[in-house]
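Form 12-C: Joint structure prediction
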Amino acid sequence: MRNGAWIRNVTVAGGVVVLLFLPHLIPAYYTHLLILTFIYGLMAMSLDLLMGYTGLTSFGHAAYFGAAAYAVGILTTRYHVHFSVAMLGGLIVAFMMALIFGLMATRATEVYFLIITLALGMGVWGLAYRWVSVTGGDNGLPGIPPPDLGLPWSLSDPVNMYYFVLTFFTLACFFLSRFVHSPFGLSLRGIRESESRMRVLGYHTWLHKYTVFVIAGTFSGLGGVLYAFYNRFVSPADVHITASAEAVLMVILGGAGTLFGPVLGAGLVVFLRNLISAYTRRWLLILGVTYVLVVMYAPGGVIGAMKGTFSRLRAKMIPTPVPGGHPQKVKLQRENPDEEVLTR
Amino acid sequence: MIPSDAPGTCLVLEKVSKHFGGLRAVDGVTLEIRAGERRAIIGPNGAGKTTLFNLITGEFPVTAGRIWFFGQEITHLPPHRRAALGIGRTFQITNLFPKLTVLENVLLAVQGLRPTKYVMHRPIWGYPELQQQARHLIERVGLWEKRDLPLTNLSYGEQRQVEVLLALAGGPKLLLLDEPTAGLSPGETRVIVEIIRSLDPTITVLLIEHDMDVAFEVADRITVLHFGRVLAEGTKAEIKANREVQNIYLGAGTGS
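Section 2 - Result
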């Protein structure tokens, strides 16, 4: 686990450097798509905490994203507060909402959890759509000003906005990566694998599920806050069930249960939507086909497929047992396929 | 019987029942287990043995009756609180974390009763004492070489050993073993039996077992359950000599 740590660190550092210079190397349109990828990536990553790590598939994750975006919209366009106050307000709204919704949703598991989160998400959409005096109804909330940092750089320039979003995205990645590798993060994977076993080991499993629900909602809210500032417009479509479904899609496409898979998934959806829709209006068809193909041929998502290819390559290149010592590792995995059948 | 907090009493069940609709899975069971005792619970399929375990660990709420653990009533405590008091169990059908590695499986068990389990900002490999204890446990069954393998890659026999390890990790005072040797070869059964025999004698062990040789070898006393009721309780010799038990369980006509 730790042997590969320095390779990992180098990769991450390299990735950050590339991302720092990227907007100067690519057309502005791609910068725009990358910003959207980071924003939706935040939502997808936070959803993956529930879906991939804890095994709770939420079908209403856009609710926290949208509620935070609405909060920013209302606070800036109506009360003209400082952007930092609006950001904080957005996060608090997402946090409070997850705190309340979590009480209802985490009592259930599996499909019941999915249905409850879906219903709560629809409720939020109904509110956005119908509560016209506050949310602007179908017209949404236009005219959200970009954050004024009080610096010579204006965030109405997409490149500057790129760095603004990247900062929060990187910070969130850092915290989430600490989180999933922590003892608490391991307990979530334990709950996914066997909640009954976790209980008799002494875990108050509900508390763990509720906590991660609130954390996931809050990070989704961070995505929503950045979205409101970047898009400068929030509408009921952003909290609609299709937005929630798209988040689920991102997680599955990228690879559930991995930290960066959902970001890749978000990128895939964002780029497919925007690049293909230039050629055909049937881009949803292409997205659907991609989804079906991934589920059929790469159930671990893009990340899973990449890992599989990598380990196959490594097995080919190093036929002898891996140095550092688990001679059984290769053997067990490749020579005893029946063993697994026996255990069932 | 007034459930005693008399010293030396580990577990007391007083007329404990569990009904599933019309089915009386456990029907007025009264048991008293001394601290350090090795007690086997035997009985035909459907006698309510596993249900009884689920009542003791708190997986199911009781329909009626009360349960004491070292003088403290635990009838309405949730499972994690009972685990914290020192009740550990294994499952008849292997209940582990299949996609996690052997080490992660054991780590989860090791940290289950520690406040560490709530830590969110530090990686788990930053806790040498957890790793140390996990290593100690895994080495006990000789699986340290396989610590980084996903649990599903272990043989069934090895998984059954891990099953017992997880129950031991929290340092339980009462260990409930639900058919620990189910489905194992004679050789693998020996390994499990040796683990049980090598346990600290202060740990109280309650064992469900279908393998009579194992039950008679490990246990001091035996309780026979039949249709959710206690049919007989006594030493090995008493149980072997009990005609009722012979009829329903050991097989009619084999008695001498």
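Section 3 - Comments
The longest helix of chain A spans residues 28-54. The CA atoms of residues 58 and 114 of chain A lie 5 Å apart.
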